[in-house]
Please model this.
Amino acid sequence: MTGMRIPIVMCHGVSAKLTPERLERYFGIAADLGFESIGYERLAAWRAGGGALPPKPIFFDFDHPVRSLHTHLLPLMKRFGFKGNLFVNTLPMEKLYANGGHRAPDREWMTWEELGELKAAEWGIGAHTHTHPNLSILSREDPTGERLRWEFETNDAILKQELGVQPKDFAFTGTSWSRAAEDEVRKRYRFGRLWIIGATYEADGGSIRYADLAGVPGPDEPDGGPPLAARYITKALDAYRLPSMELEKLIFEYEAYRRYLEGAS
Ligand SMILES: [Zn+2]
Model:
């Protein structure tokens, strides 16, 4: 027995592929299989040996403060008793308010009040840099790490000021990673989360197999993704290289999604 494997799915809210109907079906499948959503607080307690998890825990992660999280995902997930974890890059928020776009009926982003409603509904709020740089490229352009630290500091400060949140957890941007970014993330945050859309990752200005980055042995799978063991959170996995499975990619088809969830036990 290798211990519990926790599925973690990720998306950026409603999209052309992820219609509200489709998202509802994914949550319905998870609910039918008996899954309960958890967040990073409970993960931290469990990994430290101080807290039990539900029998079938699952993470529903989201990146970017997109409006559909408030209009669609929050009420939809509430119906199933699920809560999400949202990682916020703050430049879109700054721009939204700078040009009065927060009053526009067709705006793309949430307001701070709407983000506050997610927080009040006990969604986790994490850090995702300010300008969303490619961290792999940035590590080459910024050898001193000054811009990198500015990204984290600015993001944290705005989330603190506008939401009263001191982010503890971080989601790496895109499929980009660097040693320098991870070193800084380890100093500032409790967890670092990656994003699986295929078998490779950008790292330190080059390319790496995702499985090698995550330290998971074995060949990639026929579906074009890393070994199955790399797709779940476990107790043994490095806290700063947690996975997340993009809903629009490898687990988009309902059967692939169901197999992924069933593969947790
Ligand atoms: Zn992002």
